[in-house]
């Protein structure tokens, strides 16, 4: 590959290879031939091996500048993957929530497992939570310092706001200092009310150990992200064939719903706990003019 690069650029192979040639080689591999950063890194290792085979002193090919370029390429690939995944991801809307509720309630499983699955869905949607913030990665092991435990869910009541469910999230992605975040999920009184779903689930599972993960199937296995994704897919496939709804679609749906109702960027960022403009990737529904919200507030006397 190095020989092809030099031939194409009409340059001679001279050992040891200069930093300038290595940088040109990286650019050619990554941007002209479209290779991934990991593959490019493999070719750099091959060039190093070439020097050793030729009996030359081992070269320092991965200079600080070369390392920065490779790291930059990796970061760009990560952004491209995120952008593609976000474009493919389908948001959960109110209609999808109602359909999912009906499908979960008719799910051929233990009644408590149905309540568990529905409670998780409402918290994901209304709390704009990430799947990993509520669920475990493995079905038979967990880390109390990372995973949401039963004791991390607290139902509070206030005369002004009514009932509020507080979630203590251990390692939220947005907190770089690794401090826990408290997320408030409010009672809505609607057919997809998270507090109502939580209250029914809590009553059915009141004997659960508060030091264990919050969500556990009646079989004793921990509710995992992969399990919930499979359930959501299975329950929606019949009515939404080819859908691309997953756990992260609830977070997408929350941002989209707020944007559609005319909420400000600041409000959307606050609810979703976004620290940057990343929330714009999650807004999938058409955005109504903020004048609509202002009109509604005036009519309500607020």
User: Low-confidence stretches at least 5 residues in length (pLDDT < 50)?
Assistant: 274-298
What characteristic shape results from the CA principal axes?
A: elongated
Count up the helices. 12
Number of domains: 2
The CATH class of the largest domain: Mainly Alpha
Number of strands: 3
Largest sheet: 3 strands, antiparallel
CATH fourth-tier homologous superfamily of the largest domain = Intergrase catalytic core
Mean pLDDT: 81
Overview of this protein structure:
The structure is a single chain. 49% of the residues lie in helices and 7% in strands. The chain is mainly alpha-helical and 302 residues long. The protein folds into 2 domains: 87 residues, DNA polymerase, domain 1, CATH 1.10.150.130; 206 residues, hpI Integrase, Chain A. A 3-stranded antiparallel β-sheet has the order 1-2-3, covered by helices on one side. A hairpin with a 3-residue loop joins strand 1 and strand 2. About 8% of the residues have low confidence.
